[in-house]
Amino acid sequence: MSPPPAPYVIVCGASSGIGEAIAREYARRGAHIALFARRQDRLEELAGRARSLGAASTLVLPGDVSVPGEVVRAAQTLDRAWPRLDRAYLNAGTGGDQEVACCAAPGARIGTFAAREWDDTMRTNYSGALHWLEAILPRMREQRAGHIAVTGSMAADRAMPQSGPYAASKAALRALVESLRVDAGRFGVRMTLIEPGYVKSELTSRMDRWLPFITSTDDAAVRFVRGVEAGEALIRYPWQMSLLSRLGAQVPRPIFDLWAKWNLRGR
Ligand SMILES: NC(=O)c1ccc[n+]([C@@H]2O[C@H](COP(=O)([O-])OP(=O)(O)OC[C@H]3O[C@@H](n4cnc5c(N)ncnc54)[C@H](OP(=O)(O)O)[C@@H]3O)[C@@H](O)[C@H]2O)c1
Predict the structure, then answer these.
(1) Which of 156, 165, 204, 236 is surrounded by the fewest CB atoms within 10 Å?
(2) Residue 123: inside a domain, yes or no?
């Protein structure tokens, strides 16, 4: 019996962290891989490594996910180069603690709240996913096949202080995927929501606080790819953080607020 044909896989947010590790995992599986992010040099470097790991072919697609025209251009290149699209990982993301520093800075007042700055997180994490969905769903619908995995976060369970914009973007993605999964499923397209706990990456390296149950990037990526290939609708990893996060979401509000204020002391 001949082996199954190599899948065509695009990874958005592939220049570092989880996306980079997902691309490496598919390279080891012999897939055709397209890499999308802003840092082209990092993508070129990864493409070289992916080929030596066994990727059937690689395509570098530089672009900013928050700029619709750049996503359209990348998707058109993909349409021309590939006969079909089997998997799309919508994983580009930004945020963490730094974007709310305007409120945390010593002496800062609520008057320093910068809507535009906070909206940047939404435009990358949420609107960026929408731009890619618009670009790829028609093609997958025509194929009546394909699988889209969107990276959310356990931060959607309960928004922590100083991470409001990030948690808001991930809660929006959760609602979007929960709804769209059924709609897309009606024309043969699968969807998976990936909700990581803490994973070592550039994003977490900027967080100056305790990150419980933080996992290696490779372990997380292998788990995510295995779950997507098995057709799981929701992947949360690691389970210890998933449990802690779900329990934390049930803590009554007055107790949560007391804990949150205590946690912020000195900041
Ligand atoms: N690490 C964690 O603990 C954790 C937990 C929960 C969820 N997540 C989510 O996992 C995803 C990957 O994050 P990571 O932890 O691997 O962090 P990371 O190393 O900072 O990776 C983020 C990736 O997103 C890309 N990206 C950011 N803004 C972009 C933009 N405007 N246009 C195109 N690409 C953009 C970055 O590439 P360029 O800078 O080159 O554009 C990079 O490839 C994110 O969605 C994040 O929210 C991470």
Answers:
(1) 204
(2) yes
Q: Say if strands 8-12 and 147-151 run parallel, antiparallel, or are unpaired.
A: unpaired
Q: Does 2 fall in a domain?
A: no
Whether 255 is covered by a domain: the verdict is: yes
pLDDT digits (tens, 9 = 90+) for 185-237: 999 999 999 999 999 999 999 887 889 999 999 999 999 999 999 999 999 99
Q: What is the value of pTM for the model shown?
A: 0.95
249-263 in b/e form (b: 16+ CB < 10 A) is eeeeeeebeeeeeee
Asked if residue 257 is part of any domain, the answer here is yes
* Closest by Cα among 222, 216, 166 to 194: 222
Nearest CA to ligand 1 atom 1: 199
Residue 144 CB neighbours (<10 A): 9
Active-site residue flag, 166: yes
Instruction: Please give the Cα distance from 54 to 24 (Å, whole number).
Output: 9
Residue tagged active-site, from 8, 166, 198, 237: 166
Structure token digits, residue 18: 């989880």
Mutate to test the pocket of ligand 1, among 44, 125, 202, 203 (most ligand atoms within 8 A of CB): 203
Q: Give strand ranges (E) for the chain.
A: 8-12, 32-37, 57-62, 87-90, 147-151, 190-196, 234-237
Give SS3 for 217.
Answer: helix
CA atoms of 219 and 24, how far apart (whole Å): 12
CATH number for the domain harbouring residue 110: 3.40.50.720
What is the total count of domains within the chain? 1
pLDDT digits (tens, 9 = 90+) for 240-250: 999 999 999 99
In this structure, which amino acid lies at residue 142? E
